[in-house]
Amino acid sequence: MLRTPPKEGDFGILVRVESEPNIRAAPTSTPNKKSKTGRPKRPRTDSSPDTDFYTDVHRSLTDEQLLVTIRQEIRSAISSEIPEISKTDTINNELREIKELCLGLKHSVEFMSTEFDRIKSELDACKSDNKTLQKENETLKSTVADLAQRVNLIEQNSRQQNVEINGIPEHKSENLIKTIVQMGKVVSSTIKEEDILSVVRVRKLDPETKNPRAVVAKLRSTLLTDTLLTSVSQFNKTHPKEKLNSQHLGYGNAVQPVFVSEHLSPLNKRIHAATRKAAREKGYLYVWVRDGKVLVRKADGHQAKHVKSLEAVMLL
After folding, report:
1. Domain named FP protein C-terminal: which ranges (predicted)?
2. Do 217 and 196 contact (CB within 8 A), yes or no?
3. For a surface tag, which of 43, 89, 93, 137 has the fewest beta carbons within 10 Å of its beta carbon?
4. Which is nearest to 162 in space by CA: 124, 240, 121, 218?
5. Could you read off the pLDDT of 14-65 as tens digits, one per residue?
6. Measured between alpha carbons, how far is 185 from 245 in angstroms, rounded to an integer?
């Protein structure tokens, strides 16, 4: 709000007062006890309306210019920010896509985590079952080994009255009972035909070999069996150059050695064969069978060892 301008006379007085050249000669007020070193301010009096007028005009112009300047700055700022706002929208869209992607990844990770927990649980169960199965397997192995030993013992005991003869030539019209009776006469062990309960040739373990099939004879008692085996052993010791052979049994062809031994079970046969091979490799002097047991001796004066299994052969 503008005030009424002052009269001309008053304005002239105001000019003369403000343009007083001798500022130092102007009267000063009585100094206060507490003096200030700063420049004294001119006291404002209510009797200077022209000063208030110019102050209000200057303030009014300044406010209008300030408003204009603010408007211009706002327009300029808005104009410069519009591209940035557009960029912000693009960024927001991209961020929205990233957020959706992250959400999808989150769901995938949660699913994978659930699946991992499930698989881990199943794996733990499998490990537990595996340990149980391993224990059961060890128990079953022990049981099977024990049963195998029992079966082998039963099979061997059922062969106590049998003798196995290798090296007898094969003929279509052969009479194996008479051949065994003749063998008893040669080794000084009396065997009658009625003492032979059965006699048969068994199949070869190695079909490619040219050796004749073995003969298995079952005698009436284990006493006859033991007597025959002992007599054959004594005959071979007393006739080292002419051990029991095919000519002694009435076969006039080429001389073939004849071996008489206990009739071993299939497992004991494998143990016997493996033991003989290991004995040759490791320098054992003696390998023999007694009462269905495979025995070895390293040298004269050494203690005999009973080879009970194929695993024991590896420990010789």
Report:
1. 266-311
2. yes
3. 43
4. 218
5. 444 444 444 444 444 444 444 444 445 555 544 455 555 556 655 655 777 8
6. 13
